[in-house]
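hey all, quick one before standup. I had two proteins in the batch that finished overnight and I want to keep them in one place so we stop losing track of which output belongs to which input. First protein below, input sequence then structure tokens straight from the run.
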Amino acid sequence: MTDDTLLDAIRHWVEVETPTGHVAGLTRLVQMVAADYAAIGAETEIIAGTGGQGPHLIARLNAGTSNAGILILSHLDTVHPVGTLADFPFQIKGDRAFGPGIYDMKAGAYIAMQAAGAAARSGTLSLPITHLFVSDEEIGSPTSQALIEDLARRSKYVLVTEPAREGGQIVIARKGVFRYRADAFGRPAHSGARHQDGRSAIAEIARLTLAFEALTDYDSGTTVNVGMIGGGTAANVVPAHAYAEIDLRVDNLAAARAVEDFVAGYRPHDPDVRLQITGGLNRPPYETSPAIQDLFTTAATIAQDIGFTLKGLKTGGGSDGNFTAALAPTLDGLGADGAGGHTLEEYIRVSSLTERLRLLQGLMERLT
């Protein structure tokens, strides 16, 4: 397929708005993807959504073999709310194609489907291909995580079609992601007449914020961001409730355990304030293993044959690859090259589509 042909098909996917939780839009796109995959000979299975989320789709090629095969992971949900398309329509400007979700990750999902079909038609495919499309990745895959992990345990390799990074490079490691919410419950009082009777929940959250932020250690790769805080009812009332939302990233499982120990042992500064911390590890660290390094070497060789140089990067962002890296060798960032994910300027490089498709197809054909 030419870049123009690919781009025209990708446009149809982009023009179905699919923010996480928009069940109607996600259902429509899942049905479109299932039809597209069936047209190239795949067996498809739509899994009904749960928990207010959209459905998931499994497509299988070369399913007759009993060998552990290749799992391709894609997501169809985006961060852009319904109505975004009106202000940020699909458009092409030179080598850039713009549109909500085109970079993260509808273009990558589409070219992976076409690569799978081409690999199956080539007659050189020795492993079965399972392509899973989920509808809730942007919120941490709460309804698809178990399915992702189950399929990964039965696979020999995992290829994730998150967008390429840094000019076409792929991802071989990601940080683990913690999400916490802390709620402090103090005692209200008039701030002038009976200040001594109050117990400030905001003061407690402020101390907790500083304690969490102190965990940031760039040398070890641990970063903390207390991204939201709130509380209180009026300036002249000692606040009885306050909260904080915390995002925490770690490089490895040892650092993850240290965070969990810190949270388990944390106690409020004021014994009269009750502190409740909920949440935990949202995605485990995706660490580069020797098997992942070997898989990357294969990909780099294929890229060299195509005519470009591939590098493997570590990123702080999480993906569904975090769930699979410890279960099967995983390569991530195999989607289209571009930039601007999660913004109204996201785009793909049109000229990257064919080379990324050939890279994916080459992996599927060469892995045994």
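OK second protein, same deal, sequence then tokens:
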Amino acid sequence: MNMKMFGSDNDSGVHEKILEAICNCNVEHANPYGNDIYTENAIAKFKEVFGEKADVFFVPNGTGANVIGLSSMLKPFEGVVCVESAHINVDECGAFERFTGSKLLKVPSKNGKIKIEDIEKTLSAVGNEHRVQPKVISISQISEYGTVYTVDEIRELADFAHKNGLLLHVDGARISNAAVALGVTFKEMITDTGVDVLSFGGTKNGMMYGEAIVSFNAESTKNLKYARKQGMQLISKMRYISAQFLAFFEDDLWAKNAKQANDMTKLLYNAVKDIEGINIVASVDANIIMATIPKEWIEPLQKKTFFYVLDEKRNLVRWVMSYDTLESEVNDFIDEIKKVSGK
């Protein structure tokens, strides 16, 4: 058996309990477009997890969740403040700008997390008819650098946003890894901090496909069902997403999966952080390690297992662990690193 890849948690297969749930909902006909018992039960589960005020809209993928969720919060002349490394800026092929007609207002970040002082610089445009009006702050939890916002940091951002007439959006593609890392519930991290709209990810944590837009903002909720349809994200056989989420939450499967990925990341980090030649460039909070390594190490290590080189000039690499990553596989990779490093 080949060693699992460390390129992304998208590389992993589907958890057997998720596959079972898909098969179980495939035995009979059901009403389309979410008018089925699986979707009804899945929405009820989300409300149990996030609170009754949460409104839930299932979509097939993360880009769709981000673009549709954000579009529900904006007028065309309004913009989204995010860090330069944000997924909506780097890895969604301009989908946000094309679909919404709005603009991303990018600010710098060394560790993937946004700072209030950088957001404040964009507020000078408020009221100026010649400039895009900042309206939404968007953060990734976890960030593209693998760093995690604390509950207090999210609350501070939400409070700042609301005091300045802005809204807060969270790209939660890896939100399960963040919740496990912090030891908090989703409600404590999102609902109780004042987040307005959340993109809740399942694909990177054992699901086949499927994300959820969770709205806590009444105005956004009014727009979402129309935006989802117009944005080509209303899937007809929605029960195949909803059934997955039911299995995802049952017996805290989401937490078990995320914990395995996080634990394997800690195992790798602790073994390599002091090896000469490896420079960890951001705190390792969940299931991503960002590091620079000598160029000559990359090819032999990639022969062991695939991972991404994000910046060839810096030899910046990313190692991502998945819910199904095994301790033996991590140890094999550690041995290979020691071999190429001469340790």
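Flagging for whoever picks this up: Residues 15-249 form a domain with the Aspartate Aminotransferase; domain 2 fold (CATH 3.40.640.10). The chain has a mean pLDDT of 96.
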